[in-house]
């Protein structure tokens, strides 16, 4: 809802960076992160071919399957 509510106030449509951080996003299911990425696309945002996609990870909340999921979603930087 937040993405849809604010999309019209954003002056650009292509994102060159995406950062999921604060509040340990790695503690939630990867499907919820994917849903947020899809909603960005549904709201008309494009991801740059040179996108830097970062997700903050707490080592206590990560396993190999989640890392694979994040990589498949396009994340190329882990913090």
Notes on the structure:
The relative contact order is 0.24. The chain has helices at 2-6, 30-42, 64-73; strands spanning 14-20, 46-55, 77-78. The protein is globular. Helix content is 35%, strand content 24%. It contains 3 helices and 3 strands. The protein has 79 residues and is of the alpha/beta class. The mean pLDDT is 92. A 3-stranded parallel beta sheet has the order 1-2-3, covered by helices on one side. Helix 3 links the parallel strand 2 and strand 3 (77-78).
The radius of gyration over CA amounts to 13 Å
Q: Number of helical runs?
A: 3
Give the biggest sheet.
Answer: 3 strands, parallel
Mean pLDDT score? 92
The count of DSSP E runs of length 2 or more, i.e. the number of strands, is: 3
Features:
globular, alpha/beta, 3 strands, 79 residues, 24% strand
Detail the topology: elements first, then pairings:
Blueprint lengths: L1 H5 L7 E7 L9 H13 L3 E10 L8 H10 L3 E2 L1
In brief:
This protein is an alpha/beta fold.
